[in-house]
Structure formats: C-alpha cells, structure tokens
Amino acid sequence: MLIFPGKISKKFLVLITASFVGMMSGCASNNSYPPVSEESRYEQPDYNYVIGAGDDVQIFVWGNAELSTTVPVRPDGKITTRLVEDLEASGKTSTELAREIETIYSEYIKNPVVTVIIDDFISIPTQQIRVVGEGAKPLKIPYSKHMTLLDLMIEVGGLTEFADGNKAVLVRSFEGEQSTYGLRLDSLLKDGDITANLALKPGDIVIIPEAWF
C-alpha cells in the first residue's frame, strides 16, 4: 500500500499507481540476456545419436542367432557380449559400434554381419537436454531432432506457480564456448506467443528461476 501525507489529487494518484504497475510489469518481463538470433532460431544441427551409459544395446548377428543378444551399457560406458568383454560403446553411433563388433567377431566367424539397435535411449550428457529450476518436472532427456522449446516444456509439464518464465535462460555450448540467451516462457506458454519458440540443440540447458514477489 502506498501512503502519502496530506491530500493527494486523484490525477496524481492515478499517475503514481500506473507508474508503479508499469515498473513491476517491466521487472517481471525484462531479461538481461539477449535472445537467440533469428538466423539460428530454427536452425537444425547435423545430428547422429551417440550411445551413452544406461542405453540398452541390441546386437544382431546375421546367421548366428546364438551370438545375438541385448546388453546394457554399463556406467563405465562399456558392454560385454558373448564373445568380447569390456567393449567400449559409449560415445559411438550404432553404426560405428556394429562395424567394430564385426571386426572383432571376424576372428571367430567368417564374414560377420552385425546390426546394432538402441533401446531405452539415455545418450551422453553433451547430447542431453536438461531443465533445472522451476519446471514442473525438472529432468534430462536425450535430444531428438526437430525438438523445440515448446516440446521440451510439454515434457516437463510446464512451469510451477512460482516460476518467472520470462527470466528463464538457455545455456548453449558450441565448439567449447558457452553462451547464455534469454527465454520468454511465460509469453510462449501463457500468451501463446509462438515467436518465443525456438529449435533446441544437443546439450542445451534451460534454467528457470523463481519469481520475486
């Protein structure tokens, strides 16, 4: 409540109230970080899924059903097959892993043909998308091609009632350099402003702060 000594004209009171509301509105919506540039807002990266710890790897060896198996990628990033122990899998694509298994199996069988299929995608941290702070369900998920900020917010169930969505930031790394960009999540989710949407990239981190009332 604003308290003034003596008599205050209605006109002056209206001006003061309007200025106060405008100031508070501006504080709630301004973001000190620049937005993602227009030319890169919907740019899609050249992306191949990379195996990570926690993935399930299905190995199929043509004509050798006894060698076909499904194994988990251990926390150390390695797998154990029916012929090979401690084979590094994390950080490789399914095609790269299949070719490596073919090379190793060629010592035991003639001209092996191997297919690798990934189940229960986890991926490596640099290809995960992470949400921290005031998302309804802060989480990390593997990046999917064509994933947008709106898709991500649906995954996390939107914002908490305490979130300051228009003060949220996107932390993005590129060629070893980290940049921070302002986001307008309130505009996107509450106002339906589709111009606040953007394409995500592997390794993006969305940080949603709590509002100051």
From TrEMBL:
Keywords: Cell outer membrane, Ion transport, Lipoprotein, Membrane, Palmitate, Polysaccharide transport, Porin, Signal, Sugar transport, Transmembrane, Transmembrane beta strand, Transport. It is a multi-pass membrane protein. PROSITE patterns: PROKAR_LIPOPROTEIN (PS51257). Residues 127-208 form the SLBB domain. It holds the Pfam family SLBB_2. GO terms for molecular function: polysaccharide transmembrane transporter activity; porin activity. Residues 1-30 form the signal peptide. It is found in: Cell outer membrane. InterPro entries: PEP-CTERM_polysacc_export (IPR017477), Poly_export (IPR049712), Poly_export_N (IPR003715), SLBB_dom (IPR054765). PANTHER family: POLYSACCHARIDE EXPORT PROTEIN GFCE-RELATED. NCBIfam families: pepcterm_export. Belongs to the BexD/CtrA/VexA family. This is Polysaccharide export outer membrane protein. It comes from Neptunomonas japonica JAMM 1380. The lineage of its organism: Bacteria, Pseudomonadati, Pseudomonadota, Gammaproteobacteria, Oceanospirillales.
